[in-house]
Amino acid sequence: MSARFRFELARESDEPALRNILRNTSMQGDVSLSFEREPNYLMAERLGNVRTQIVVGRDTVTGDIVGCGSRSIREAYVDGRSMRIGYLGGLRILPEAQGGSLLVRGYRLFRSLHEDNEVPFYITSILNGNARAEKALTGARAGLPIYAPLGKMITGLIPLVRFRSRRSTGVVRMAECSHDVSDVVGTINAYNRRWQFAPAYSEDDFRGGVKLRGFSAENLYVRSNDGEILGTIGVWDQHDFKQTVIRSYSGLLTRMRPFYNLYAVSCAIPQLPPVGSFVRNLYGSFASVKDDDPVVFRSLLDAVRRDWSGKGYSYLTVGFHEAHPLARMLVRQSARVIKSTLYLVHWPDDGQRFELSRRIPHVEISTL
Predict the structure, then answer these.
(1) How confident is the model at residue 70 (pLDDT cuts 50, 70, 90)?
(2) How far apart are CA 103 and CA 189, in angstroms?
């Protein structure tokens, strides 16, 4: 069947079809979710990237797109040095086109694009429970690159239903801050330089650049002492261009949902919304904490919860690698935790050589 399809870079005119792919492919589980990009797929896929290439699989008979994936180029810190690395994401194949050699043929085009030698390797992540993707991509299948696991990413969902904090946290928003944006960006970059694959930012990124579309520097939170910045976190609402949609619940969860929602109200945690609803989350992005001080990190989270709870959002979403010193604190503050596996992806026959130190990865989940 796969001989019927050809693989090529997406055209601007393919944008509606790409959104349709996302609407019709969901991550299955007790709660089945679709990760959508309305109103413009191409715009959303460019977040966090210097350059983005979208690969599509096209049915040569009907002209329909049956699958897609993206290859992105990003500025990140590798062993303390800013350089360009790749990110592979957005892999989707319509159910009727799955199977055969379709995936392998698609990766041939990725391999061809990799010959520009712009990056030595890629990172990617696969959600726990997505057994189909994990088996297809990481099983050392002929024609696919090597997927080397780098440990688990911990994504904490911190409730934004009700929050009362009487004590001052010492945290202020950028609009009220005595520091310039350049000071804050410098602090974030200095922190990120310690880790592996953490983003490298410019001031322009935080002044309306395309890479951080929809983020306002006014929503940066800063804690400082005697002029020294101790910690930062940014609140990023991406709902206008990236959506998570409830597609279905399992039979058991469907029956239990009314009772769970009563419990949720009493515990001040988000309810399970109706099928077809959006999950309205905020991202806690650009986190930096001097000496990984949990007290400073907690004060940043408290300030965000104080300002954003009760405004129609469900969770503040924050992510760390499982080995990060603040991962345990994040788990304690979260109502739910989502885990995924981070991978280093490379083609062993491309002639590029790289050796990496054993620094802890630190990727920005808001741009995955």
Answers:
(1) very high
(2) 37
Backbone torsion region of residue 214, taken as left when φ is above 0, otherwise alpha when ψ lies between -120 and 50, otherwise beta: left
DSSP structure class, residue 15:
H
Q: Class for domain 2-153+340-354+362-367, per CATH?
A: alpha beta
The pTM assigned to this predicted structure is: 0.94
Q: What are the structural domain ranges in the chain? A: 2-153+340-354+362-367, 158-240+274-338
Which two three-digit tokens encode residue 298? 């907690």
Matching residue, tokens 């419990």: 263
- Secondary element (H or E) of residue 138: helix 131-138
With 80 as the cut, is the pLDDT of residue 168 above it?
no
- pLDDT tens across 171-226, in order? 999 888 989 999 999 999 999 999 999 999 999 999 888 899 999 999 999 999 99
The CATH number corresponding to 158-240+274-338 among 3.40.630.30, 3.40.50.720, 3.30.70.3340, 3.40.1390.10 equals 3.40.630.30
For 150, the 3-state DSSP assignment is strand
